[in-house]
Each structure stands twice: as C-alpha cells, then as structure tokens.
C-alpha cells in the first residue's frame, strides 16, 4: 500500500499547518518538515504530498533525481510556477 508523507515548509505557521492537515483526505501517514526530509527513505511506493515554495520544490526534485517517488503539490503562498 502507498505511504503518504506530508512535506511542509518549516516556516509555515502551526495554525496554517494544522488547517491544511485537517483538509487532507486520505490523511498522511506522517508529516515532516522539508528541512528534516531524508529523501533516501522513500521509494516508488511512496507519495510526498508537498506544501512547498517553488525554490523548495526545485531542490526536492533535483534531490529525488531518478527516484520514482510520487509527488502531490498542495497550496503554498510562494508556489508560483509549479
């Protein structure tokens, strides 16, 4: 079964983070700050549901490189191009 991990901007206010987590369905199995994310822990059976800025998304995609992790993009005030 696919594991869903919510990846968030570490600068997100706690109230906004809880609001966004409350809206997710299905609920993620875990949530982790982008600054604490270890991409080597994920494989093609995983999905990263990301609320990140364009800059953070670019870093994440470059870090994942050939990994077949699924990405889901969630709203973020600094996500303009994604």
Poorly predicted runs: none
The strand line-up of the biggest sheet is 2-1-3-4
Tell me the total number of β-strands.
4
Strand residue content:
15-25%
Q: According to CATH, what is the topology?
A: Rossmann fold
Q: State the helicity in percent bands.
A: 25-40%
Shape: globular
Number of domains: 1
Strand/helix succession: EHEEHE
Q: For the record, what CATH class applies?
A: Alpha Beta
Largest sheet: 4 strands, parallel
Distance between the termini: 27 Å
CATH architectural label: 3-Layer(aba) Sandwich
Work out the radius of gyration. Answer: 12 Å
Number of H- or I-type helical stretches: 2
The chain-level structural class is alpha/beta
Rounded mean pLDDT score: 90
Short description:
The protein has one domain: Rossmann fold.
Please describe what this structure looks like.
- With 82 residues, the chain is of the alpha/beta class.
- The protein has a single domain (3-73), classed as Rossmann fold.
- It has two helices and four strands; from the N terminus they run βαββαβ.
- Strands 2-1-3-4 form a four-stranded parallel beta sheet, with no helix packed on it.
- α1 links the parallel β1 (3-8) and β2 (30-33).
- The longest helix is centred in the C-terminal third of the chain and has 11 residues, at 54-64.
- The radius of gyration is 12 Å and the shape is globular.
- It starts with a strand and ends in a 9-residue tail after the last strand.
- The mean pLDDT is 90.
């Amino acid at each position: 079964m696919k594991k869903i991990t919510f990846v968030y901007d570490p600068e997100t206010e706690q109230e906004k983070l809880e609001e966004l987590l409350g809206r997710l369905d299905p609920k993620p199995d875990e949530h982790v700050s982008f600054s604490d994310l270890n991409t080597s822990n994920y494989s093609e059976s995983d999905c990263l549901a990301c609320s990140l800025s364009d800059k953070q998304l670019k870093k994440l995609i470059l870090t994942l490189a050939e990994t077949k992790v699924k990405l889901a993009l969630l709203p973020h005030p600094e996500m303009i191009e994604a």
